[in-house]
Sequence to fold (528 residues):
Amino acid sequence: MRSDEEMVRQALAAHVVDVEVEPYALAEIRQRIAARRRRFVPAFGVAGLAAATVLAVLVGVVSCVPDFGRNHTPAGTSSRVPVASSTSHPSTPSGVQIRVPVYYTGNGRLYREYHVQRVPADTVDGSVVAALSDMLRAGSAADPDYATAWPAGVSVRGATYADKVVTVDLTGIPASPPSAAHLAVQQLVWTASAAGADAAHVEVTGVRLLVDGKVRSTLWGSGTSGVLHRDAFSEIVAPLWVIDPQEGDAVGKTFTVHVAGVVFEGAARLRIRDADGKPVRDQPLQLSVGSPSQGDATVTVKDLPSGRYTVEAFFVALRDSREQGLDDHHFTVS
Amino acid sequence: MLDPPADPTAPTRVPPVDLTLAADAAARAWTADEAVTRLFGAHYRNLVRLASLLLHDRAVAEDVTQDAFVALHRGWWRLRDADKALAYLRASVVNKARSALRRRTVADRYTANAPPPGSAPSAEAGALGVLEHERVIAALRRLPTRQREVIVLRYYADLSEAEIADAIGVSRGAVKSHAARGMAALRKSLEPGS
Fold:
């Protein structure tokens, strides 16, 4: 015979067993967080003025960051990782460790990674320089499928932020263009915009390019005298990419796969292959929103045996049912 | 806290995160955004269900749970611990559910609404079981707030007295007292002829 306690336990469980959550709940939470940030930034800019002059650029700025992922933010777009303090913008003698977004190219499209770097202070210009330094360095991408479109020898001299524009000063630009000159410029524009916006949740509408401190009218045949803008992300950014696990990650028996992308009706697929290439998971993946907006989805994967795996995100083309836009990362379950 | 990389100019991979391990070191490496994403995947549904039992209003339950995640994001810089984060979320849901209940509109809905349709009874459960469950839920709704919270946290969330005390901000003795009174009221409601 059941005890009263057991009866109560069963009644409570039965009463909510059919309570399901909204499919876009995570996106809604992120939108609320983004809305709170927009309310917070102007006040913080005023309060922080005396303590951190670098934040003066924030005063009066209403942050409405256009970087994709801001409203439907994939994990980790807030990139501040304080080293030794619980405050968000510490400046210590040893500097701060920050996480910066860096765009790389693959299959003629841009993919984003996050890299952790130590910088003297958590500032917009410091973040942009850190991100661009990685972006320009060959072999800096964690995923071997990604690369920089920039030629060797180019480095960043500095960066500033004013009037919603990040100004980047490069040096070492060769006269001959790289094979994908426009993609290279877009790689820089997207990286500088995202790093600047992430640094202090400010709006970045474009990037101005200097070479050795001076405005150049053209770079590899493209006009660079004015402000450079990001191409529409549906035109330039990869349709799908795996955020987690990152390339080379080691995860536990239960882990989360996080995928973002811009695909029709948010309909993607997720597949995990074992070391022999045999699929051990193959399932539909419904992103939070469909194109032209960027959506994302997380899936908890349980009980994979230890070993090496490959996670793949892709979508199936309506026209010919072919797999398109595949992004894959190798990882280890231990 | 993350250790600084040996080479300040070298990129360092973001540490992999596994919620089931819930290791302090890993959790402290999460950004606030990551914490929200990880904890959402692991706990959001159960927290909505918890709020649903406290509020008897599923839409408001989801709303207060989302509020709790936003609050977690805001306070992550000082929390930064996966285990504490779940306790924080749970306490936040309970508090926000209590506040929501105090608001007149919600209170009206709570008392006036008919119970939402429950799950279709399984063959095992049978009509008698469904009837019994409905009587328990109806009796639960009539309990004072603290008693209802304790009963739900004890018998739905399966928390210890100490965890319940933390979640609702009372002493362990008070938890025992609320639990005893709540169960007595539920028993009485289930007596034949009640």
Remarks:
- The radius of gyration of chain B is 20 Å.
- Chain B touches chain A through 62 residues (CB under 8 Å).
- Residues 1-25, 109-126 of chain B have pLDDT under 50 and may be disordered.
